[in-house]
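Reviewer comment 2.1 asked that we show a complete input and output for one of the modelled complexes. We chose the N-(iminomethyl)-L-glutamic acid case, as it is the one discussed in the main text.
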Amino acid sequence: MNFLVINIKELIQVEQKSHLKVCGKQMSKLPSIKDAFLYVESGRIMGFGSMKDFNLKRERYYSMSSKIIDANSKSILPTWCDSHSHIVYAGSREKEFVDKIKGFSYEEIAKRGGGILNSVKQLQKTSEEDLYEQSMLRLNEVIKLGTGAIEIKSGYGLNTESELKMLRVIRKMKENTCAKIKATFLGAHAFPIEFKDDKEGYIDLLINEMLPIIAAEDLADFIDVFCDDGFYTTEQTERILMAGIKHGLRPKIHANELAKSGGIQVGVKYGALSVDHIEYTSDDEIKCLLDSDTMPTILPGAAFFLNMLLSPARKMIDAGLPVALASDYNPGSSPSGNMNLIVSMACINYKMLPEEAINAATINSAYAMGVSDKLGSIALGKDANFIITKPISSYEYIPYSFGNNVIESVYLKGQVQ
Ligand code: NIG
Ligand code: FE
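Response of the prediction step:
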């Protein structure tokens, strides 16, 4: 269907010339058009500009459109891109949440068989159908909250059967939603209990058994490793990344969440699309990232939920780096996929400007999942994935009004959700 939206108070994050990402100072610029229109044809953005421009071509646009929406002074921005999530999981872990309140650390809980391995146990005994239903509910919830693209990781299976189960669920989700989904193989999320004393044995299984099937069935776009203290070493990470790359999977790394693990350097060395978490980032890591195409991605939900160190986002942007934002939606360290809240946290806790946070959660997070040529901004030819806000006074109101719902409706590929 072709349609028009007219009388938009502010059309936010417009690009006359598309960029794949924005870096440093450029992140504080958020181009917008006040009193604007938007024209959608077959699910793509095929026209936009000021109402003045629209009035000059009014007859032409009216004749091409089968529907006209009067935005009535509401604003429009592109949907959020959530470039790091684990929304395919079974059950929940609120008991550990209570343990954390009582003073146990994330590492302590993991050592007692909780943490990731708790979710592994629950997922292994959940059927593919049930897992799909649980995960689809979460996906539809985050779409209502304005997410139009999401990367989803495996990593709660930790054996061939269950890792494949997760990736097949992600594939089925791709087939049944208008949201853009990218799948990441994270078999190296933890070591399964059976391989507690044979870590290399598990890595062999991952490389020699799981990866060839995943590649043959085209089940993943990316490969990820939890490269951190107590999880995968940089040497183990290198081995897994090399194998993934051989099978055509680009790396995305969990790095430096718990310590200065060397994960950022390994990610950059292997051309990772993004390095994520990166709470422990100092000058060496910033320098390394400056010479790369890798997107530093911060996950404010996890740092908030676990009360951890905050990634130095301000310092990275001031040094000229791009920064992306993602939810890390998962049952252990960030049981929320609300990107509006993530954008607020970026401003409040990380001192990012609203413009920087919105860039980080749209165009830069689209880059971090390899879709910024089609999503992440209002630009000609891009997918018509956009949010119509409630009546708000300015885009700064979005992060300011933290925890409130400023969204009136969400369109994906031109279809209202
Ligand atoms: O991104 N850091 C590693 N993995 C997840 C946590 C997963 C879990 O606790 O279940 C994360 O925070
Ligand atoms: Fe994660």
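Residues 3-79+377-416 form a domain with the Urease, subunit C; domain 1 fold (CATH 2.30.40.10). We note this here for comparison with the apo prediction described in Section 3.2.
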